[in-house]
């Protein structure tokens, strides 16, 4: 009886072991808020095989139990899962991604000053100039052909100058183009750092940097570039990346 029990247990173990080590064709779909996502890169990090979701958000990829699958699309946060025996058995998984917040360009708001027409001396002078100009226009005078003067010219110049000083404020230069995190990380640390220190494979480096870029902390490094801070950040993200 004991021998039979041992034999059955051994068969189950061998079956499960063989099942977990055999690649299967995994089917699935990727969504965001119940919307199917097209052009999502689906990468088997374990086997380095990859595919892309179709117009229906569906994909087919060879995989086995415990393989790490990564889902990437630029506008969304990187998503990683580890396949369970149930995922392989059902042969159908559904993955939800989270969209990154949209980054808005800097908006400059200028406050238009409240003008007290009765108390503001500059605007009081403008009003006086306008009244004087109107009175001058209404006067009867003899106009000569060679008289090229304009009665209101000087007054209009003063009015325009006053408005310009009160309402216009020049902004300093155009905004300098911002370097991408991936480019900054590669220029800060050479390939040897990624291969020997972080123990990454050559074809994992780009994927790893995409994983880092999905972290909001990477934007802080773009604003304050410091090689030591960059290395600390990459070490910390590498630990998370290895767990995928």
TrEMBL record:
InterPro entries: CarboxyPept-like_regulatory (IPR008969). This is CarboxypepD_reg-like domain-containing protein. It comes from Flavobacterium rhamnosiphilum.
